[in-house]
């Protein structure tokens, strides 16, 4: 198990998860969001190739409506 920060909250997750698996583990259902790992945005095409490491900071950002 490793510890990561997800949107400012510490989570304990399995080792060697990629971003796609992390989203499934967190049961994140909202559509249309962006993910940054250690302040670097990860494209959807790279979700399966990007492994989450111990101590990473993950930000899941949903679009904000308004004008």
Description:
The protein is mainly beta and about 70 residues long. The chain has one domain (about 1-60): Ubiquitin-like (UB roll) (Roll), CATH 3.10.20. It contains 1 helix and 5 strands; from the N terminus they run ββαβββ. It has a 5-stranded mixed beta sheet with strand order 2-1-5-3-4, with no helix packed on it. A hairpin with a 2-residue loop joins strand 3 (about 35) and strand 4 (about 40). The protein starts with a strand and ends in a 6-residue tail after the last strand. About 5% of the residues are buried. The mean pLDDT is about 90.
For the structure shown, list the relevant keywords.
mainly beta; Ubiquitin-like (UB roll); five-stranded mixed beta sheet; 1 helix
Strand order of the largest sheet: 2-1-5-3-4
Shape: globular
CATH fold descriptor: Ubiquitin-like (UB roll)
Q: What percent of residues are in strands?
A: 25-35%
Distance between the termini: 42 Å
Series of H and E elements:
EEHEEE
Number of domains: 1
Assign the CATH class.
Alpha Beta
Could you name the CATH homologous superfamily? Beta-grasp domain
Please count the helical segments.
1
Largest sheet: 5 strands, mixed
Map the helices and strands.
Layout (H helix, E strand, L loop, with lengths): L1 E5 L2 E5 L5 H7 L8 E4 L2 E3 L14 E5 L6
